[in-house]
Specification:
Distance between the termini: 34 Å
Structural class: alpha+beta
Number of strands: 15
Shape: globular
Order of helices and strands: EEEEEEEEEEEEEHHHEEHH
Number of helices: 5
Largest sheet: 6 strands, antiparallel
Helix content: 10-25%
Strand content: 25-35%
Radius of gyration: 19 Å
Oligomer: single chain
Length: 242
Amino acid sequence: MAAQTLVMPGQVIPEDTLPVPQKSSIPLKLGPGLRHTPPSIITTTIAGPLCIDRRKNAIWVENNSGRYIPQTNDVIIATVHHSSTDWYHCAITPHTTFAQLPQLAFEGATKKTRPQLSSGSLIYARVTAASKHLDPEIACYNPSTGKGEGLGELKGGMVFDISLGIARRLLLSKQREEGKLVVLEEMAEQLAFEIAVGRNGKVWVKAKGVKETLLVGKALQNTDREGLGMDEQRKLVKKLLR
């Protein structure tokens, strides 16, 4: 991850700031906080650190406290609000319109085998379409492989709110090196648990009991709220588990 530069709304991103991919076939990915004006002008829409991932050829503005704006390929945790003939209508955040989930958008789903989700059901899904003019669309499988790849209904467990910033860091492939996070690694040495992180500022945790689930959630939320470094995260975990 490259060094971060603070930007303000309406600022034009210089062309020499944009990431240059190792492979020319990788398109530039604009994330939250940026707007593209054809042919080649990119401006910021929010204030915050400008983040660049040169490996993925991605650039975005980090905004921990802002509302989540759905982006294609984001993984999210959503709650089924209601259903219609062919769709589940799911809440992503209190501030966004319902996301539309096709009832057959699950691994191996047919009209006979599709999951029967009710109001309040939790799902782990990927955003497949996002536009400011249309409701976002999500799916619980990878359309290119037909596999669930960890997506689907989340049964049991508890959901905790976290900032958008730490949600992004938790989703990095190298949490320790790139995200400066060791809290889950430290907790996993003492507790067994499942976890799903949503880019929309939600994290689902399921351990063997309520107490253990709450401990993992508390460790994450304290790390997030207090902005703990890696050494401080280790101290927090020792304190919670003693």
